């Protein structure tokens, strides 16, 4: 067996014509929701803050103290608002091994119970975060003197979005008759 590579010569015209074969389609942004765009905006604020921290620390040798605090609080916003996207797309960690061995009716019942528990959890988390905001929402941040309530309102918004998306997913599961736990292949394209 020879290890010599064989290459076919292609002319510049042939290469140029390959770009004409298929017209690229426009970007499809329909799969993204409001929470995706909000998380992206907060992410870029965080990225710019981290870059400014790096630039002022290592290039100017005099770092801005507030950039680290802003980046930390932006990360909190990205995590909780971005989690709503994960709920909408059913991308959180889940164990579906048991569902492979259960008959349809018990699997359907267990999946419905899991949907209800998820809704109840997010509802309870909303209540807890709201109580937390009432207690310490007026405290000031360390370096920029804004109220910490701004950060916790982002967490609250994330839980409200997760609550709403979990209700939406539960309704879709009930209408469809199965969830991602019962038939993961129907959601990732592997089911034929």
Automatic annotation (TrEMBL):
GO terms for molecular function: transmembrane transporter activity. Keywords: Cell inner membrane, Cell membrane, Membrane, Transmembrane, Transmembrane helix, Transport. The keyword Membrane applies. It is found in: Cell inner membrane. The keyword Endoplasmic reticulum does not apply. It is a multi-pass membrane protein. Residues 46-176 form the Tripartite ATP-independent periplasmic transporters DctQ component domain. One of its GO terms (biological process) is C4-dicarboxylate transport. The chain crosses the membrane at residues 37-58, 70-88, 150-171. GO terms for cellular component: plasma membrane. Its main location: membrane. InterPro entries: DctQ, TRAP_DctQ. The complex comprises the extracytoplasmic solute receptor protein and the two transmembrane proteins. Part of the tripartite ATP-independent periplasmic (TRAP) transport system. Belongs to the TRAP transporter small permease family. This is TRAP transporter small permease protein.
């Amino acid at each position: 067996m020879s290890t010599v590579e064989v290459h076919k010569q292609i002319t510049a015209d042939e290469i140029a014509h390959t770009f004409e074969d298929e017209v690229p389609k426009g970007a499809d942004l329909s799969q993204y929701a409001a929470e995706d765009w909000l998380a992206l905006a907060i992410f870029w604020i965080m990225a710019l803050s981290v870059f400014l921290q790096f630039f002022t620390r290592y290039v100017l040798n005099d770092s801005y103290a507030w950039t680290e605090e802003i980046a930390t609080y932006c990360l909190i916003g990205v995590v909780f608002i971005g989690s709503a996207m994960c709920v909408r797309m059913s991308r959180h960690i889940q164990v579906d091994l048991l569902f492979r061995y259960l008959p349809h009716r018990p699997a359907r019942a267990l999946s419905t119970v899991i949907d209800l528990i998820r809704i109840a959890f997010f509802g309870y988390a909303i209540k807890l975060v709201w109580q937390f905001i009432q207690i310490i929402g007026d405290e000031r941040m360390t370096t920029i003197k804004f109220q910490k309530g701004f950060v916790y309102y982002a967490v609250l918004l994330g839980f409200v979005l997760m609550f709403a998306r979990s209700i939406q997913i539960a309704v879709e599961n009930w209408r469809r008759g199965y969830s991602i736990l019962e038939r993961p292949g129907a959601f990732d394209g592997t089911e034929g």
